[in-house]
Amino acid sequence: MASDLHADPILVRPLQETTWRFYVVCGVLAVIVIVGVAGYVTQLQNGLAVTGLNDKVSWGLYISNFVFFIGISHAGTLISAILRVSRAEWRRPITRMAESITVIAIVIAAGFPIIDMGRPDRLIHVFLYGRIQSAILWDFVSIFTYLTGSIIYLSLPMIPDAAILRAKYRLGRLREFFYNFLARRWTGNRLQKMSLEKAIGMMAVIIIPVAVSVHTVVSWIFGMTLRVGWHTAIYGPYFVVGAIFSGIATLLIAMAVFRKVYHLEKYITLKHFRNLGILLLVLDIVLIYFSLSDYLTAAYGSETQEVRWLEALSTGPYAFLFWGTFIGGFIVPAFLLGMKRTRTIPGIVISAILVDIGMWIERFLIVVPTMAAPQVPFDWGVYQPTWVEWSITAASFAGFALLYAIFSKIFPIVSMWEVQEGAEAPSEVPAPAGQVNA
Amino acid sequence: MRSSPATIALAALFFLGVLVLSNPMWFAPSAQATHEGDVMCPSSTVTVHDAFLQPGEYRESFFDPKTKVLLYFACVQDANRTIHVGLATPWENWTDLRFQATDAWNGDFNVVRVSMKGDSAEALDGFMRGAEPNFVEDTSLGGSHDIAGPVGRLSSDYYVYEFAFPLRSSDAYDSQLTLNGSFYFQLAYATDRATFLESDPHFIQIGQAPSGARWASLELSLPKGSVALESAEILVGLRDDRSRPVAFMPISVFVQTTFGFLDLGTVLTNEDGLASVQYAPRDEGVYLVGAAFDGERGYLASAAWLSLVLPPVPSDPTLLPGDLLVIQTLIVLVVGGVWSTYAYSLFVVWQGLRASREAPSDRQEPKEETT
Amino acid sequence: MPESQEWQVSRRRFLRIVSGGVAAGAVSLLLSDQIFEIIGWAPTDSRALAGQRKQWVMVIDLARCNGCGECTKGCSREHFVPQGQEWIKVFKVQNELGAEYFLPRPCMQCENPPCVKVCPVGATFRRDDGVVLIDHDRCIGCRYCMAACPYSARSFNWAEPAHTAEELNHTYSLEEPWPHRVGTVEKCMFCAHLTRHGKLPACVRACTAEMGDGAIFFGDLREDAVSNGVETIPLAKTLRERGGFRFKEELGTLPRVWYLPPRSN
User: Fold this and answer.
1) Residue C4 has pLDDT above 70, yes or no
2) Contact A132 B348 (CB under 8 A)
3) Nearest-CA distance A293 → chain C (Å)
């Protein structure tokens, strides 16, 4: 029965009370978003000439943001689906955080190709004249499939929580609308629970290959061209591993923020940070391995054009970014995560922040240096992003945070029924320890 | 040496001939005319306007390498110094013969413009000034149409025209030939397309034909029993008026392409008067091949044309390559499978939610009715 | 706990319907050619028909090119090419031993074009006479073709191009794509609007006008002849004797532009 489940007041409080700090933060984020929108309007009026793009470097910040956000969308899949399939119980408090990152990140990511288009008024052409031979179409199909699957995968576990909230709390019309939609018929009997578990189980299994395919297909947009630096077989695995890597880092940051702001220390413990931190470390090592493999192969073979590209990265105009990413985003986090002394919550969160910054720069380094490297003799390109591109980039991050914050105010950010299910079975989740003041 | 005036006249003629012949100008197309004496048309040719170029009809010839037009001339000793012209041209639209009897080519010239109108030829007599294509008919300038007996015929691959015109006409606009019968001429043509090509100006002297002026006839063919696309060989044969082979003469062969004539080479005929060149086009179509003999060692010039017809090569219809179709099908299956799973999950949940209307207790016995 | 059999049966039915639908879709895709034949619909791209049987090819004699750039100017005049774009671009190539030559680079009109492969909406396509065209009504400005072209032969209208009155008076067509539009991709198209009427492309004419006997030759691959407006040379023979090559041959793009080596003989 629905009344069997009880809601921990801690988890419900964010839905009931909102401090002034929340409004201030949302206000700031909203302002950044508005500035970005203004930038986009400028671009619509004057064409893409307001960006730093040119005939040589014709893809820049927009596309690297696109790849980045698709990358962090892999957080949800890994945590929820893979850990569920492998029956890792410690995942329960963080599944919803992860799944919502996925949905919001995909929505933001999907905006970027449209922002990058020269003729967004012709978006319908993709539907009318779409060519299945083009990697962009594969991208479109797989991202749409992933988004749909992620929304389903996010919504299904919300049904029992919505039922509790609906039954026991009065939380305003907006939230009532969502809860009714999800859980009007939910009574919590065994049959319903079995159906739900079965459906969630199926979705978990199917969403893993979909997620892998999404970032593989995104990598093929680059990998299927003939450009130096792009046309390499390692791009598929590299992108997928990089995506999960940046996704976990984002999740760690989100965990730290929500834990602090909503006082979720009871649910999100050092153990969660440590487990995810170790996953982060493992992926870090794999990514270092892939990078070394890619760069050393190119350097050893020393094909003329590849050497030019490598020089641009290692000693040329992109050297600062390249070494900064490699050391700050890959090596330093590996040490922080690897050494027991620094494997604390602050240490792990700092690693996660370094990783996210490093991966964003890494996406930039994937897109731009290859396009700047000459294809015809000595024809180097230069790319200097303008305020329009920066403001839209900032707006995307602010928009992401804003949507996430709003989401956490509509639905409990920790999945209550999943945690409770885990508590009923013998597990290591600690028993409720009483109220903690906000 | 009994008739001394005749002797003197003959000697004078002989002397004149030597002078003219030894003048290097004779061989220079842009040379100045020599102006001595009157037009002489000693030849007694019988030119019949039947649009067939026969041996014995003409005494002079010229093949223009730029416009690929072959000209024959013959002069009649009459008051107007009528000149007969035979013209073989591959061009469908009109062909111009522009001539001028002045010392230097000054850009004003008389024009004879021939073209086929249906089955018969039309020859316009006109005047052009300068380099502009501003052809004006003599009749509208107050002159007269002086061209006699124009005939024309489409031979299989080219047009043959024959006509005559006076070198001394009564038209004010026609340049008069009062001098030694030399004149400048230029050829021009128009085609269906917007292209228009003129030859360089050429110079010919009438009435001083080298002895002989023997007839030569050129023929193009493909080797017996060969398929044009595969053999790529084109045969050239040069014969005289008695069908005897003319050996060791240079023949230039060319083919018409989109942007100009491609020179296939200059070959020497062998003892049998035959030679061959190679040309291998890569696709079906009609290719116009021409050959020209410039007229040496007493032979008149000759030209021949041949339309090389290459039949369509049957090719496999290229639809979507098979393996791409398989990949597309796999994509449809995979994506379809994923979306089916979504639908099925939602269906399962929806079934469960719908069941809340019935008793929430568990069912132990299966229901009797099954769908 | 056993689920109701009624549920299981209806679930099975659902699965059957859905999987049947997917299978039907897949099968009809596999048999699409035959199906099209039966209903009499030919899914050919009518834009790709040229109307005349030609296979255009260009030969550039690097031994003659002196880098004057008249080809670029002629092309820009002919097509009202927007400011900052060069559809045929002349590069200067130097190697470490001091050899220096100029390389004019038009669009290669590849037989296996990477740009056509990647276009998501089919806005760029290869016509049956070999010219790769752009449909500016359809282009969405994603610039994937620009990323894919190994010769950097494409340009983009980043802003609304400056127009002359003459350009605006003209009606857009595939072969004469002006007035140019913001947010779409542009490139050389072998002057399809001129070659259709037996005229040589603008760059060929400009080069011959400047040099008397130009370095750029153009012609029909089928006729095995190319011309620069002054002389017509045999194609296969010249390439064989002069050692003609194509740019980045190893990429498998099969360009239609051949180069004669920069060596005077």
Assistant:
1) no
2) no
3) 23
Q: If residue A346 lies in a helix (H) or strand (E), which one and from where to where?
A: helix A345-372
Proportion of chain C above pLDDT 90, given as a percent? 74
CA dist list (Å): A237 to A145, A214, A370, A429, B73: 20, 11, 19, 34, 83
Identity of the residue in C105, C119, C160 whose CB atom sits nearest the CB atom of A47: C160
Instruction: Please indicate whether, in this complex, the C-beta atoms of A48 and C121 are within 8 angstroms of each other.
Output: no
The answer to whether C227 contacts B257, with C-beta atoms less than 8 Å apart, is yes
pTM of the model: 0.85
* C103 to A225: CB separation less than 8 angstroms, yes or no: no
Q: Which chains touch B (3 or more CB pairs under 8 A)?
A: A, C
**Residue B356 and residue A187: Cβ atoms within 8 Å?**
yes
Please tell me if residue C225 touches chain A, with a CB cutoff of 8 Å: no
Contacts of B5 (CB under 8 A, 6+ apart): none
Q: What's the CA gap between A38 and A61, in Å, rounded?
A: 17
- Test C26 with B320 for CB contact under 8 angstroms: no
Closest partner residue to A199 (CB to CB) among B324, B345, B361 is B345
Residue C223 phi/psi, 5-degree rounding, is -85, -10
Q: State pLDDT tens for residues C234-249.
A: 999 999 999 999 999 9
Interface of A with B (CB under 8 A): 1, 132-133, 138, 141, 145, 148-149, 152, 156, 159, 184-187, 189-192, 194-196, 198-200, 202-203, 206, 210
Could you tell me which chains touch chain C, where touching means 3 or more CB pairs under 8 A? Answer: A, B
| pLDDT tens for each residue of A198-219 | 999 999 999 999 999 999 999 9
Q: How confident is the model at residue A433 (pLDDT cuts 50, 70, 90)?
A: very low
Residues of chain B contacting C1 with CB distance shorter than 8 Å: 362
Asked if the C-beta of C184 comes within 8 angstroms of chain A's C-beta atoms, the answer is yes
Write out the DSSP string of B284-324: SEEEEEEEEE---TTBPPEEEEEEEEEPPPP-----S-HHH
Whether A54 and chain C come into contact, CB under 8 Å, resolves to yes
Question: Could you report the per-residue pLDDT of B250-270, keeping only the tens digit for each?
Answer: 999 999 999 889 999 999 999
Which residues are CB-contacts of C105 (< 8 A; sequence separation ≥ 6)? A376, C88, C89, C90, C91, C151, C153, C247
CA distances from A331 to A246, A275, A278, A325, C252 (A): 15, 19, 14, 9, 40
- Token readout for B1 is 């040496």
CATH 3.30.70.20 fits C5-260, yes or no: yes
Distance CA C122, CA A137 (A): 11
| Distances, alpha carbon B315 to alpha carbons B145, B285, B319, C44, C199, in Å | 56, 15, 12, 17, 30
> pLDDT per residue over A329-381, tens digit each?
999 999 999 998 888 899 999 999 999 999 999 999 999 999 998 888 777 88
Res. A51: pLDDT tops 70: yes
- Name the more confident of A184 and B325: A184
Tokens of C99: 């050899």
- Residue B197 phi/psi, 5° resolution? -125, 140
Structural domains of chain A ordered from first start = 9-277+382-420 (1.20.1630)
Query: Which of helix, strand or coil describes residue C147?
Result: helix
CA C159 distance to own-chain centroid: 23
Q: Is the pLDDT of residue A249 over 60?
A: yes
Q: Where are the domains of chain C?
A: 5-260
Q: What is the mean pLDDT of chain A?
A: 90
Answer for the pair B215, B255: CB distance below 8 angstroms, yes or no. no
Select from A258, A248, A372 the least CA-distant residue to A318. Answer: A372
Q: Is the pLDDT of residue A239 over 50?
A: yes
CB distance B352–A203 less than 8 Å? no
Question: Chain A contact for C136, CB < 8 A?
Answer: no
Interface partners of A (3+ CB pairs, < 8 Å)? B, C
Query: Is B356 near chain C, with CB under 8 Å?
Result: no
